[in-house]
Structures are given as C-alpha cells and as structure tokens.
Amino acid sequence: ANLMAELVLLEDGWLVINLGPNTPLASFLNAFERLRPHLVWLSISYLPEFGAFQKGVTALSRAARRRGVTVIAGGRAMTADRRVKLPHIKFGDNLAELQKVAASLR
C-alpha cells in the first residue's frame, strides 16, 4: 500500500520520501524536523493495541498541526469505530482519496 501511495503522489508531482513499512510513529516526528513535509500518509493494516496507537497518533497529529503538516491514514485496520477516536487526522479508503487530499494541498 505504501508503494502504491508513493506512485500516486509521484504521478501528482510530489517529491516523495517513503519511510518504509512498520515505521514507528516517533520516526515521523523526527522526519518532521529533518524533512519538513507537507503531507504524511499512514497505511495501517494491523493494530494489535489500538490504545497505544491512538496515543501515538494524537501526539503525531499535534506535532503535525504545529508544523502545518496534513496527516492522512488508511488501511483495513482503520475501521469506523477507530476513526471517530482520531478526530485530528484525515482518512482515506482508497488511493483516489489520497490523491484528492494531496491535490487540495497544492
């Protein structure tokens, strides 16, 4: 999914830096400082512990907002009941939605 997201963004003219699979959320916080992104995509297929993820993504979204970074998440683990608990990020059910969000940032 991350490689497909990368291709969609490249096709739309974005400079893409893929941090790879299974990236700890703390790595995204470090990337905010080093890379200064405008958009961060999270593909979440499996969440063994939602509470820890929720806490981490809340911290990530706060840091993103301070820097003007849009966070969008997708993947089969982002069920409707989980999405309502993460109100500060955007969600996409497919790559067309990622492209739509990315295009709105230009």
Provide a descriptive summary of the structure in words.
By secondary structure, the protein is mostly helical. Helices cover 50% and strands 11% of the residues. The chain contains 5 helices and 3 strands. It has helices at residues 2-11, 25-35, 50-67, 80-83, 95-104; strands at 39-43, 70-74, 90-91. Strands 1-2-3 form a 3-stranded parallel sheet, sandwiched between helices. Helix 1 crosses helix 5 (95-104) and helix 2 runs parallel beside helix 3 (50-67). The longest helix is centred in the middle third of the chain and has 18 residues, at 50-67. It starts with a helix and ends with a helix. The mean pLDDT is 92.
Quick recap of the structure?
The chain has 106 residues and is mainly alpha-helical. The chain is built from five helices and three strands.
Low-confidence segments, given as residue ranges, are none
Residue-averaged pLDDT: 92
The radius of gyration computed from the alpha-carbon positions, rounded to a whole number of angstroms, is 13 Å
Supply the helix-strand structural class: mainly alpha
Q: Could you tell me the number of beta strands?
A: 3
Strand order of the biggest β-sheet:
1-2-3
Per DSSP, the total helix count is 5
Shape: globular
End-to-end Cα distance, whole Å, is 23 Å
- Helicity, in percent? 40-55%
Largest sheet: 3 strands, parallel
Q: Strand share of the residues?
A: 5-15%
- What sequence of helices (H) and strands (E) makes up the elements? HHEHEHEH
